């Protein structure tokens, strides 16, 4: 049995360039064409994700390096480790 591999699509751009709206449009277009698609990050439901969301909505003022580390931590906090 073979398994089809999915595609990872990355949109890159500077802060506040409109990446999120473009990602949302891309996901919707893929779903409308019958493909499975989802946006994974930032995961805004976690504590770190809420800090990121606050920054992205201009509700908090964080230093750029701090935000970079928060994005990294946001990915790592969702990694499932075997117990």
TrEMBL record:
Q: Quote the cellular component terms of the Gene Ontology held in the record.
A: cytosol; mitochondrion; nucleus
Q: Which GO MF terms are attached to this record? A: dTMP kinase activity; nucleoside diphosphate kinase activity
- Top-level taxon: Eukaryota
Domain (Thymidylate kinase-like) spans: 11-79
Q: What is any one GO biological process for this UniProt entry?
A: dUDP biosynthetic process
Please report which protein family the annotation says this sequence is part of: Belongs to the thymidylate kinase family.
**Official protein name in the record:** Deoxythymidylate kinase (thymidylate kinase)
Q: State the organism of origin.
A: Hucho hucho
**What broad taxonomic lineage does this protein's source fall under?**
Eukaryota, Metazoa, Chordata, Craniata, Vertebrata
